[in-house]
Specification:
By secondary structure, the chain is of the alpha+beta class. Helix content is 45%, strand content 14%. Helix 11 links the parallel strand 10 and strand 11. Helix 5 crosses helix 18, helix 7 crosses helix 12 and helix 16 runs antiparallel to helix 17. Its main location: mitochondrion. Belongs to the carnitine/choline acetyltransferase family.
């Protein structure tokens, strides 16, 4: 997913000198700190684990201690699988060279790196996750807008009210309900396929969380229960209290507060309009500006209000959402959620809720604290609660009485000097170049869906991944290193692993589709490629993937000042096709067979490589698949709309193989 962008070509410096013994102590220090962090998290969860043994129904963290640790794969297995993954992308000479470099690494450098990595795995809860958060996300100095943050869309076909303040009121109240259940550990434990327990630790930092910029590295600030929200509207920031008389504000009360903000006609203060562009630009200028201009007085107080808020709300003055009569409606909607105007989302917050003038919604999420399924879990709860539990009056207002005695929202005050305004403008210009370069296309594929694919006895994910390989080859005339995000949350504190979807089997299938092979031959190659993909996905989910292992070996090589040409090359290879499936129906709060129009549109992320594509796909019910495709206008090699058309045709062409098989069987 978006993480693939950060996973290429990153670098850092360990300022340790001296003999090998000193370097080893440096490694041991980091291993120790990883363990301390892990044990601190366990202590926080101890209370809910005690409740598990009191006879109550399972709580959110009930299965945490029973989850296994992520195993460290053997170096032999990782090297073998890596070489297998790059074979279809290299000619014989290139492959032979890579084989020599890989085997030299396996013989000379890997044993020592592996030894320390195994030591870390014994002490820390998860040998990957803390380094992944730090080095893939928090140490990145480039803008997180587009490059790292991702988005989720509203319901595709339904808008329960067109009143902006009312929709925001219901949804914010639903989020507060979700947060309260989260704080009380009352959500049911997460389970894969409804059976296998999954790690829930990422959910801890969903609310009250902000990424704080630093000169060399950022850090994630997570606080306990926060009682206010900060709202952005037409260049002004407002503080809204979420509690009244010891309870959450009711939806009708929140609607009143948001309507007051919408009706406010005051002008932004100097420097206020584009202030949030600081979070959209490069991290170092933002960190320096924060230290210099926001460390005292009203600026410190107002920034603190934003950074300590439960989350951030943007009341947009635009209209967005899917409109079947407008060809680019999904494209513009996605771009608005991904980057907006570059200054109307606080990209450092764990998430920004975006409410449009026409009642449509969306979320922009910061990536370091969690992965997309975590936001998706909350978003499913919120949308279902909004539509089926809270509801609206006939006039489209929130239900409930209006409390006229509520104190109005407080306008945040700023004293931003001209020098700081120049920094803000520079950050805005950097962000605007990135945003303007995003070429996005939203593709609704409704010719068939999961139902038909399963009838062909094929995994829907494998079917789509092979369609993407076929589309990629038709689009560019060549194959490329392909990233598919899978999860490792069946292990404690697991996050993601990479499935390398471009395989020798998939390339053989694609070439057969473009040659004069019979349908039976093509179908046979398809099944072999699909089986291969499913096996790789299982390996990734069960701790036998290769990319996180190679990543951690690289980090360890840096701490030990071991120069590895093999690891350097592996970690610098570009993912020109980065893909991810967004899970749906994690909670099953809505029966989409009964209410087929109440389906989400999923979400997406920005382009990963300058000359590549980012593709997020969502399998919705039995008959719909949505594709969110991103690339860069600046690349002459890519075109998101064209790629969408290639995906559509590839899906149809693969389906035709099964149609031909069925036809042949009937004729026999």
């Amino acid at each position: 997913m978006a993480e693939a962008h950060q996973a290429v070509g990153f670098q850092f410096t360990v300022t340790s000198d001296g003999i090998d013994l000193h370097l080893s102590r440096e490694v041991l220090k980091h291993i120790y700190l990883s363990g301390v962090t892990s044990w601190t998290k366990r202590a926080i969860r101890f209370k809910s684990l005690v409740k598990m043994f009191s006879g109550r129904r399972p709580l959110l963290y009930s299965f945490q201690t029973s989850l296994p640790r992520l195993p460290v794969p053997s170096v032999d297995d990782t090297i073998t699988r890596y070489l297998e993954s790059v074979r279809p992308l290299l000619d014989d000479e290139q492959y032979n060279q890579m084989e020599v470099v890989a085997n030299d690494f396996k013989k000379d450098q890997a044993p020592k790196l592996q030894k320390y990595l195994i030591l870390k795995s014994w002490w820390a809860t998860n040998y990957v996750s803390d380094w992944w958060e730090e080095y893939i996300y928090l140490r990145g100095r480039s803008p997180i807008m587009v490059n790292s943050n991702f988005y989720s869309m509203d319901l595709l076909y339904v808008t329960p009210t067109h009143r902006q303040a009312a929709r925001a009121g219901n949804v914010v109240h639903a989020m507060l309900q979700y947060r309260r259940k989260l704080e009380r550990r009352e959500h049911a434990p997460l389970r894969a396929l409804g059976v296998v327990p999954m790690c829930s630790y990422q959910m801890e930092r969903m609310f009250n969380t902000t990424r704080i910029p630093g000169i060399e590295t950022d850090f994630v600030q997570h606080l306990s229960d926060r009682k206010h929200l900060v709202v952005y509207h037409k260049g002004r920031f407002f503080k809204v209290w979420l509690y009244y008389g010891g309870r959450h504000l009711w939806p009708s009360e929140l609607e009143t507060q948001f309507q007051r903000i919408l009706d406010d006609t005051t002008e932004p203060q100097p420097g206020e309009l584009k202030l949030a562009a600081l979070t959209a630009g490069n991290r170092v200028p933002w960190a320096r500006a924060r230290l210099k201009y926001f460390s005292q007085g009203v600026n410190k107080a107002s920034l603190e209000a934003i950074e300590t808020s439960a989350f951030f709300l943007s009341l947009d003055d635009e209209v967005h959402g899917y409109d079947p009569d407008k060809l680019r409606s999904l494209d513009l909607y996605a771009k608005s959620l991904l980057h907006g105007k570059c200054y109307d989302r606080w990209f450092d917050k764990s998430f920004t809720l975006i409410a449009y003038k026409n009642g449509k919604l969306g979320v922009n999420a910061e990536h370091s604290w969690a992965d997309a399924p975590i936001i998706g879990h909350m978003w499913e709860y919120v949308l279902a609660t909004d539509c089926f539990h809270l509801g609206y009056t006939e006039e489209g207002h929130c239900k409930g009485d209006i409390n006229k005695g509520l104190p109005p929202p407080t306008k945040l005050q700023w004293d931003i000097p001209l020098e700081c305004q120049e920094v803000i403008e520079e950050s805005y210009m950097v962000a605007k170049v990135i945003a303007d370069d995003v070429d996005f296309h939203g593709c609704l594929f409704d010719e068939f869906g999961k139902g038909l694919i399963k009838k062909s006895r094929t995994s829907p994910d494998a079917f789509i991944q092979l369609a993407l390989q076929l589309a990629q080859f038709r689009d560019k005339g060549e194959f490329c290193l392909t990233y598919e995000a899978s999860m490792t949350r069946m292990f404690r504190e697991g996050r993601t692993e990479t499935v390398r979807s471009c395989t020798s089997e998939s390339t053989a299938f694609v070439r057969a589709m473009e040659d004069k092979n019979t349908s039976a031959q093509k179908l046979d190659l398809f099944r072999k490629a699909a089986d291969k993909h499913q096996n790789m996905y299982r390996l990734a989910m069960t701790g036998s993937g290769i990319d996180r292992h190679l990543f951690c070996l690289y980090i360890m090589s840096k701490y030990l000042s071991i120069d590895s040409p093999f690891l350097k090359q592996v970690l610098s290879e570009p993912w020109r096709l980065s893909t991810s499936q967004t899970p749906q129906q994690q909670l099953n709060m809505v029966d989409i067979k009964t209410f087929p129009r109440y389906v989400g549109a999923g979400g997406g992320f920005g382009p990963v490589a300058d000359d590549g594509y980012g593709v997020s796909y969502i399998i919705i019910g039995e008959n719909l698949i949505t594709f969110h495709i991103s690339s860069k206008f600046s690349s002459p090699e890519t075109d998101s709309y064209r790629f969408g058309q290639n995906i559509r045709q590839a899906m149809l062409d693969i389906c035709a193989l099964f149609d031909q098989k069925d036809k042949n069987e009937k004729e026999m």
